[in-house]
Amino acid sequence: MSDSIAAFLFVAGGFFCMVAGIGLIRLNDVFARMHAATKAGTLGLGLICIAVMVKAGSLLHVAEALFVFLFMIASAPVGSHLIGRASWRTRVPMDPNTQIDPDCRMFLRNRAR
């Protein structure tokens, strides 16, 4: 039973990691790419770490997978925020097809100056 659960989690994690990779290639601006890499990549790695925990032979392997997962959860949002902030401050162009929340138009007017 644990073999089939782990296999499902490995396949699902690999799928989400693949979606993150495709998103990095296919999406048009840095903000969309950042979102794809952070969200799908973290979910994919999380599922893979859970699969490793299910198939782990010892408590040491469970702890190792847990530490990898916790480090990813802690570092991915911070790195994504820093990339987004640097892109915004250096005025990296956005995709013209990006829909913007009406409440954020003030920030875009200030950015154009």
Q: What would the keywords be for this entry?
A:
4 helices; 0% strand; 113 residues; mainly alpha
Tell me what you see in this structure:
- This protein has helices at residues 2-26, 30-55, 59-89, 105-112.
- The chain is elongated, with a radius of gyration of 18 Å.
- It is built from 4 helices and no strands.
Radius of gyration: 18 Å
Instruction: Give the terminus-to-terminus CA distance.
Output: 61 Å
Strand content: under 5%
- The helix/strand order is HHHH
Q: Report low-confidence residues grouped into runs of 5 or more.
A: none
Estimated structural class: mainly alpha
Tertiary shape: elongated
How many helices? The count is 4
Average predicted confidence as pLDDT: 88
Query: How many DSSP E strands?
Result: 0
Summarize the biggest pleated sheet.
Answer: none
Structure summary:
The protein has 113 residues and is mostly helical. 80% of the residues lie in helices and 0% in strands.
Topology diagram in text:
Elements: H1 2-26, H2 30-55, H3 59-89, H4 105-112
